[in-house]
Amino acid sequence: MTHSNNINVCFLFLLFIASTLQTIVVGEPKVPCFFIFGDSLVDNGNNINRNTTTKVNYFPYGIDFPGGPTGRFNNGRNIADIIAELLGFDKYIAPFANATNQDILRGVNYGSGGSGILEETGHLFGDVINFKEQLSNHEVVISRVARLLGSESVAKQHLSRCIYSVGMGNNDYLANYLPQYHSKTTPYTPRQFASLVIAQYSKQLRRLYDAGARKVAVFALGKLGCIPQQLAAYGASDGSSCVETSNNVVKSFNEYLKILIHYLNSNLADAKFVYTQDTSDSESYGNISNLSEPCCGVSAEDGQCVAGSAPCSNRDAYLFWDAFHPTEAASLLSAKIAYDHMSPLFAEPESDAVASY
Ligand SMILES: *[C@@H]1O[C@H](CO)[C@@H](O)[C@H](O)[C@H]1NC(C)=O
Ligand SMILES: *[C@@H]1O[C@H](CO)[C@@H](O)[C@H](O)[C@H]1NC(C)=O
Ligand SMILES: *[C@@H]1O[C@H](CO)[C@@H](O)[C@H](O)[C@H]1NC(C)=O
Ligand SMILES: *[C@@H]1O[C@H](CO)[C@@H](O)[C@H](O)[C@H]1NC(C)=O
């Protein structure tokens, strides 16, 4: 038997062990780590000790979450929590604000309510963590990961196997462009604004890639013209239950985002970016029947639930929790749709998975 045959036998044996382990280890997540960037749709407590008006660590937020209010912007789990569950994690991904060394090897949630892609977005709300700062926080976490794993190259290997989800842009529209657009005080057309925001996003996503991300789900914007805050501010369009001018404005962002994703995939080696939607075109909402009114009583000032007020009791029948945010029931539906879109990031053939070691 030649030396090289020995190596082959040995290699096959390792493969055998690897595949056996894969089948016998139960409860392992589909990927080793999950990093989350975004706004209030994913924030799980990062804002609560900051000087911002965009924080909701008070009842009735969290009424359906074990332990009550945590800073999540609805009644229970948010979309990031549910996607983490679908990926097989047995604990939610920890907020950057207090993630321990043990936590960060499984990923970190950097989400911050009120934040956006443009640096000025969210300034209105005080000290929120915009995408640029979330990336800086990630770079801090990466150096901690490298120290924990003993070297930068092992850390790089680890980080390349994680899934990254990025959902930004809602506030660039809701709190920045749309108010100006509706009052016609903005110098930008919808296409000009979308290209400005996407140009910035492009640089930021590139920075995430440079930090070692290789499997990235980037979320499209939903129909922002259908949320209670928009309806209250501008009124539904004729023949629609939504503000169609706002929906149309947001379409430019999604159009350019698709082009950006294609560009990143063609230009960044070994990277997979996936354009991820969290709503389906069929608009079927299961048992959710109330599609336009918030479940809790909202403050006219900021659209958040009035502190201490009693929310609706049939929360699973509502799409919206407050003037901006979906209920846990709605988040369950959108998480499943998003998870299906994300599947190219973790449903790769076995041979690729082995080869990547
Ligand atoms: C970390 O933050 C979360 C959310 O803000 C909170 O529920 C949890 O108790 C905190 N844990 C520690 C150890 O501070
Ligand atoms: C918090 O922010 C407000 C408004 O931005 C500012 O006036 C106030 O001084 C800040 N408070 C602290 C403790 O930094
Ligand atoms: C709708 O509600 C029924 C009765 O509570 C339940 O059995 C069913 O699973 C629900 N459907 C969805 C899509 O959640
Ligand atoms: C939706 O909820 C609001 C507030 O709770 C209620 O007034 C309204 O009748 C509901 N609409 C539908 C269609 O259920």
TrEMBL record:
Keywords: Hydrolase, Lipid degradation, Lipid metabolism, Secreted, Signal. This is GDSL esterase/lipase At4g18970-like. The gene is LOC105180191. Belongs to the 'GDSL' lipolytic enzyme family. GO terms for molecular function: hydrolase activity, acting on ester bonds. CDD domains: SGNH_plant_lipase_like. Its main location: secreted. It is found in: Secreted. Residues 1-27 form the signal peptide. It holds the Pfam family Lipase_GDSL. One of its GO terms (biological process) is lipid catabolic process. GO terms for cellular component: extracellular region. InterPro entries: GDSL, GDSL_esterase/lipase, SGNH_hydro_sf, SGNH_plant_lipase-like.
